Amino acid sequence: MKKMMNLSNNQTSNKINALKCNKGLFLSFQEKVERNQQKKELKDKMDQLKDEFNTKLTNEKKRLKQKQKQQELNTFKSSTYQIIKDTKKIKQWNRKARQSLAKLPSELYEKLIKKEYGY
Fold it and tell me: Alpha helix (H) ranges present in the chain?
């Protein structure tokens, strides 16, 4: 029995020593330089792809903002509204009426004034 235990202990110690001594592949200087160059090329390619993705993303965000702004402008154009010239009475309105009050974008307001009054 002792011989079997010794054998198993010996085998495990051999495995442990093998793991400690294993240092991987020994590469020549030229191979190390080539690997480093490949890593650098790969990193450059990844950076380029990230930049392309970021530019696409920013362009998409700009497009969506522009689209949303145009939709808001179109809703103002299509809605019915009254131009309030005397704003002193607004304070006397009830709360819900004041909340429903909205300002027109300046571009649209200028177009309306030109149409109505011919400025």
Answer: 2-21, 29-78, 95-100, 106-117
> pLDDT tens digits for the chain (119 residues)?
455 555 566 666 676 666 666 566 678 899 889 999 999 999 999 999 999 999 999 999 999 999 998 998 888 778 777 778 788 888 899 999 888 887 777 887 788 777 777 76
Does residue 52 sit in the same domain as residue 88? no
* Residues of the domain holding 112: 84-118
Give the pTM. 0.49
**CA–CA dist 47, 94 (Å, integer):** 58
Q: Does 77 lie in the same domain as 39? A: yes
